[in-house]
Amino acid sequence: MTYPSFFLSRLILLKVPDQKSASEVEIELSLLDLFPQYDDLANLSDHLKGKMLTLSDRPAELISDLVSHLSGIKIDAVGREESAIEYYNAHL
Hints:
Elements: H1 3-15, H2 31-34, H3 41-48, E1 52-55, H4 58-71, E2 80-83, H5 84-91
């Protein structure tokens, strides 16, 4: 398990009311859950304002990593840029 998936798994488990229950529960996450160092959403929004993320799909990343490894030449997957706030609002 990679660090990001371990982090998210732990975060989700902490929000589950009864971890031994087999029934489905709905869990709400916010950006403040992912960035606990910020005390409110306004401070976090100010921090993310103007920040951009470069996004590429997983197969493109895997192929570029493989070709980089085989050729010895660093190849980056082509991605698209998106505002950090827009990305997190769309995915959380």
